[in-house]
Amino acid sequence: MESSKTHGQDKSSYLCGLKKKSPLITLENADSIIQQADDYLQSLVNDKVFSGSVLIARNDQILILKGYGCSEYICQEKNTSQTIYRIGSVTKPLTAIIVLKLHERKQLDIKNKISLYYPDYPHGNEITIKNLLSNTSGIFNYTDLEIFEQKCTENLTIDQLIEVFKTEPLQFKPGSEYSYSNSN
Question: Where would I find the Beta-lactamase-related domain in this sequence (predicted)?
């Protein structure tokens, strides 16, 4: 099977936006590598395979902080480093990584009941952080609510969003089943 190429590179390298063997960044080659990364990202924009904001850092030094392409298919607004995106569920694995790191450091226990953090949450004494991470909480998926379309245009705080769905009945006993829920 022949691999498709763009700018002489295998498209599979787009997965992480890196060449298969990325060079080590040193003080001597940093500017050159930063320029190569910037050129590479711009080539992806030109090929219409990437549009977004990028932050590349090493240790405490920001190497690239820049927007590429447009924020919509019809280019009405160019992306910047401050562009806000609706990334939805992309945050779930990132949240899980952070929570599990805190658990590993014993700064948080995934067996904790959510009532520890939201004392007035119905069934909060039955639902654990682990249930939330694994979609086994039984909490109703707020995007299935009839008022979701109206509420999604509002800039709700986390507490306000929880108020929208917390009175919905559990779909099942926490830990007994799996059901994807944006409310987790």
Answer: 45-184
User: Which residues partner with 10 through β-bridges?
Assistant: 5
Q: At which residue do the structure tokens 């549009």 appear?
A: 51
Task: Compute and round to an integer the Cα radius of gyration of the chain.
Answer: 21
pLDDT per residue as tens digits for the range 27-75: 677 788 889 889 999 999 999 899 999 998 878 888 889 999 988 767 7
Q: From CA 18, how far away is CA 41, in angstroms rounded?
A: 10
DSSP-derived 3-state class of residue 63 = strand
Residue showing tokens 């040193």 = 26
Residues 6+ apart with CB under 8 A from 37: 56, 63, 64
- Beta strand 9-10 with 52-58 is unpaired
Whether the Cβ atoms of residue 164 and residue 140 lie closer than 8 Å to each other: no
Give the whole-angstrom CA distance, residue 140 versus residue 156: 18
* Structure token digits, residue 167: 């009175």
pTM of the entire predicted model: 0.61
Element (H, E) at 115: none
Sketch the domain layout of the chain as residue ranges: 5-68, 110-165
Confidence band, pLDDT 50/70/90 cuts, at residue 129? very high
